[in-house]
Design brief:
The chain folds into 2 domains: 3-98; 111-175, Roll (SH3 type barrels). It has helices at residues 44-55, 89-98, 111-121; strands at residues 3-6, 23-24, 35-39, 60-63, 78-81, 125-130, 136-141, 143-149, 152-157, 161-164, 168-171, 174-175. The chain is built from 3 helices and 12 strands. The strands form 3 sheets. A 5-stranded parallel β-sheet has the order 2-1-3-4-5, sandwiched between helices.
Length: 182
């Protein structure tokens, strides 16, 4: 299980007795994250990352007073506790493993043709997508590739950036729809 953390961890959190210790989240692609610990004292960038991870359905343990707005649909995958102690490691790990890893909603299968055409032609496209805080953002970019990882689908944008497909609102003015199932 790939675990990460945001914010300054308390004494005893690292190295702990973890089989695979949690790593500091530093803008890794979302598909690398299976669960996250969030500690109070977040930087603005860490707050944005927290929102993205929680809105993407990643199991999250919030420790202490974490001042990041809660996204209601994600609340079932968020455990809020007052403090962390080394004795909490195994129960928290068991909780993280018991939770669904994602809330991914597949896009309509017919939309893949548009993505593949944009990747093949390498022409700049206008992409409108939802950010971690739910706000809509627009950009013009080239698309490089697609990837599927554990039932989630991603689009690689130029510059090594990955975007989960269910975050896309539209591509060159064509609205994306939901509905393809595996």
């Amino acid at each position: 299980m790939n675990l990460f953390y945001l914010g300054p961890p308390p004494p005893g959190f690292l190295p702990g007795t973890w089989e695979s210790p949690p790593r500091r989240f530093d803008r890794q692609p979302l598909f690398e994250v299976d669960g996250v610990f969030v500690f109070s004292g977040l930087t603005p960038l860490e707050k944005d990352a927290c929102q993205l991870l929680e809105r993407s359905g990643r199991p999250t343990i919030r420790v202490g007073a974490v001042h990041v707005p809660l996204h209601r649909p994600a609340i079932a995958n968020i455990l809020m506790v007052r403090e962390y102690g080394p004795e909490d490691e195994l129960p928290f790990l068991a909780w993280l493993q018991s939770r669904p890893r994602t809330n991914y909603q597949p896009i309509d299968c017919s939309f893949y043709d548009r993505l593949e055409a944009a990747i093949t032609t390498r022409e700049p496209i206008e992409l409108i997508y939802r950010m971690g805080d739910g706000k809509v953002n627009a950009m013009t970019c080239r698309l490089e590739d697609t990837k599927t990882d554990q039932t989630e689908e991603y689009l690689k944008l130029e510059g090594e950036h990955w975007l989960r497909l269910d975050r896309i609102v539209s591509l060159d003015g064509v609205l994306i729809t939901r509905g393809c199932t595996f």
